[in-house]
Amino acid sequence: MPKISRFGMITVLIPFMSVMVVYIQEIHNWTNFRRNIEEFINFLC
After folding, report:
1. Radius of gyration in angstroms for the set of CA atoms belonging to the chain, rounded to a whole number
2. 3 state SS of 27
3. Distance between CA 17 and CA 32 in Å, rounded?
4. Rounded to 5, what percent of the chain is helix, strand, coil?
5. How far is the C-alpha of 19 from the C-alpha of 12, rounded, in Å?
6. 3-state class of 45 per DSSP?
7. Which tens digits make up the pLDDT trace of 3-15?
8. How far apart (Å, rounded) are the C-alpha atoms in residues 21 and 33?
9. How far apart (Å, rounded) are the C-alpha atoms in residues 35 and 32?
10. Backbone angles phi, psi at 4, to 5 degrees
11. Region at 15 (left for phi over 0; alpha for psi -120 to 50; beta for the rest)
């Protein structure tokens, strides 16, 4: 039983971790994107 539950935990954790990594990268890209837009607006003004 412990081996089955541990295997189930791993199969659930691997996709969750990959989704979290992609989510964090998306947030990081969005913050950089907003910073670039703010710098561009400041440059225009």
Report:
1. 20
2. helix
3. 23
4. 95, 0, 5
5. 11
6. coil
7. 778 888 888 899 9
8. 18
9. 5
10. -65, -45
11. alpha
HEC secondary structure over the chain:
CHHHHHHHHHHHHHHHHHHHHHHHHHHHHHHHHHHHHHHHHHHHC
E strand intervals along the chain:
none
pLDDT at position 30, please? 85
pLDDT surpasses 90 at 21: yes
- Looking at this protein, which amino acid is placed at residue 13? L
Query: How many C-alpha atoms does 43 have within 13 Å on its Cβ side?
Result: 6
Q: What is the pTM of this model?
A: 0.49
Please tell me the total number of residues recorded for the chain in this structure.
Answer: 45
Three-state SS at 1: coil
User: Would you state the structure tokens that stand for residue 4, as one six-digit string?
Assistant: 């089955």
CA separation for the pair 28, 14 (Å, rounded) = 21
